[in-house]
Amino acid sequence: MSTKDFIEKDFYKVLGVPKDATEAEIKKAYRKLAREFHPDANKGNAKAEERFKEISEANDVLGDPKKRKEYDEARALFGAGGFRPGPGAGGGSFNFDLGDLFGGQAGGQAGGFGGGLGDVFGGLFNRGGAGTTRTQPRRGQDIESEVTLSFTEAIEGATVPLRMSSQAPCKACSGTGDKNGTPRVCPTCVGTGQVARGSGGGFSLTDPCPDCKGRGLIAEEPCEICKGSGRAKSSRTMQVRIPAGVSDGQRIRLRGKGAPGERGGPAGDLYVVVHVGTHPVFGRKDDNLTVTVPVTFAEAALGGEVRVPTLGGPPVTLKLPPGTPNGRTMRARGKGAVRKDGTRGDLLVTVEVSVPKDVSGKARDALVAYREATADDDPRAELFQAAKGA
Asked: Tell me, what DSSP letter sits at residue 294?
């Protein structure tokens, strides 16, 4: 139900009760009419169904003391005859919803003046219940900072100090902007910090007030420190907890850690861009850590057990199957970076067969014997065969 219908409809007439009817009389009248026009008792009767809807609508308003009070106040203010246009607008009622006029504050359901007419008009004229002008609270600015972490700190998380500079209430004038601490309400915007700007078609937009710069207050004697703005540059150092598992270039949002607000407004947010250093042993791929482990030819060919270092923990032992090729990657589960849900990724271990630079003595004799024993095994045979086929 629109606000227009809410005010224009005579719900007392619908229920057939006087305006001073008690709650018991309203309930009794509703029950009697509801039984008479209920759809179950009037199968296929469209008029009875429509009448039942009107009765239910009226009871929804008059049966609720709060809604009834708002309804009576609204009709007393605008008149029971409904909305009428001004001179030259023609006859009849307005064809728009007051919810549009009041910026959506008047609800579209019965009793939609949720905060009462005082709140509706208080918001419209920027005045409180007692008729005094209110300056609106302002949210503090967002701040962006940067921090550089070591590879290990990024994986495990760290608490780091951040020194930040931002606009905060001026200490010299207590944020008032006035040297004596007694600013006056801006006469242009009446303390709201905004002025209306017509855009045609019956609509209007708001812009920050040009005289008070959106503050709603004007200093009689501007503060020498903040020049009447009420804000001054402030530096502070705070301890910030960087969660475990952050990656290089990640932007972290810390709610309410930005610049302080004005006139009771909330603080802004702090955005921290994280830079992560490299590690001499480990790398990272998403939530997994990577490491390259050298193995001997004998280990790769015959198989065996290989000890692998982990980041910040004890080594793990991986079984190397016989005939492991160079570059093969194995997985040590749960030894990677911390995920958002608290679990860990894996450690990806890449095998690199190590070739000795100098071979002598028994090792050389063994390798020569091995070469002779495997002379008929050409590892490049398939390569040449594939090249010919292509």
From this structure: E
